[in-house]
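Quality-control log, excerpt.
Job 1 of 2 completed; input and output follow.
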Amino acid sequence: MQTNLADKPRQLNEKWLLLGTLLSSTGNSMIWPVMTLYITGVLNQSFTTAGVVLMIGAMVSLFGSFVGGKLFDHWRPYVAMVMTSIIILAAVASLIFFNKWPLFAILIWIANFGMGVEQTLVNSFATTVPGQKTRVIFNNMYIVLNIGVVLGTLAVGYLFDYGFSLLMIISTAIYFGLMLIIITKFNVSFDADDITDVVANNEKEQVSKPEMARKKFKLTPVLIAIGALLFITYLSYMLWETVMAPHMKTLGMPTRNYADLWMINGITIIVLQKFVSNWANKHPYHVSVILGSVIFALSFFFLIFVNTFWQIVLVFELLTIGEMLQSPQVPAWVAQITPKEVAGQAQGFVSMMISSGRVVGPIYSGVMMDHGWTNTLFLSVFIVMIIITGLLALTLSRRVDKNSVT
């Protein structure tokens, strides 16, 4: 028997989207910071094994992103969201009791798949929120996401010594709350008139319904360049999640300083993102993304020369500013330059390129670190990112006479 909820679909309120993002980010941030530590320190597996687990998890998440895009465009987004929330909840809840090797890795991969699907679906739902431009929605989501990172890492810092199961109990409660929000608030309509203005009013194309129905997601040169930039950005970002902890230990810093970095990163984003986004919203997407990418890349160049904690903090702050300029703008930019009829696949493309970087990052950094090429590692990601950013700028310059990229 159908409920009134199913009979009366409505528009998605931004506050529920943001609350869902907060819960998802908090729950996730209670898992990823302790993955390597738990696998090596508690399960007594090698660092190579931990890297393989992370790599496969990223690959599974990539596949989940692809599935999420297809489900949003060609199936029932609401049902897909509910099913995905149940998958994540079941995997995390199982980790309370089944957290020995190798079942731990299998459950983590199941959770990774669900999180990949969820990330794409949430981003796709964000393009349907009425009343604000897409870039504002994504900026707000980005701030809330980082509040979740702060809360999650705080919980890990204070509770990990009391046992992994306690962290999973709290994470399970959080994902249960997320599931309830999805069930009660995400059954929304997708009428064309309700879709967020992903294109500025003076840039909207007037297209007939038959033409709209024929639109498909196509990889344009600009999208390819954006995808490559996402790939190298998140490959580089994985260095902070994988090699920076042992690198800082090599420099004589205690492990707690690594946790402090992420706390500072999250607080910086919470405090400054509104100011950064207000500036970014006054400029075309590509200005913010390219500037942010250059700043992000420069942080890895300066990382070659640092050897104290506060120097690393300053470099991480530089990276954070670049991240704030780039990351929340990209999904909104992609939403703007692709037809709304393929919103799910477009956001799936974004998530897949992010996940691809996360797949390659641990492998690449691991090989470089095994050979003792730490500075070469930092220099290489700096050079590649500058080159790709330059190619994106060149691609855009060739389309300067068109309005679709701004």
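Job 2 of 2 completed; input and output follow.
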Amino acid sequence: MSVDNVEDRLDRAFTALGDPIRRALIARLSLGEATVNELAEPFPVTKQAVSRHVQVLEAAGLITRSRDGQRRPCHLNAAALEELTSWIDAYRLTREREFRRLDSILEETSALEKTKEQDR
């Protein structure tokens, strides 16, 4: 899998998650599968609008749809969400290491200042 494909998937996923309704749909699907009609219930938008949001999430690879008779339930794509969290975690861990290093330097500086004050 090439880096371009990973970056394209990340771009599509983050763009899709930029909409509050789509984030709410992801949150709802984290509880279990649901059809577009079921997903549309709590929103003050049409079922067609929710269907378009579902299509965007599907195109971004964040959800999948299956067929169960006449039902077409939507499901979260856990692997796609894991890819997002892995990408975010890489940056988070880097920042945490830098903050721990800064905390250590500040503690050393504070200890040196206390020692200087006690010597006076």
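Post-run check on job 2. The chain has a mean pLDDT of 89.
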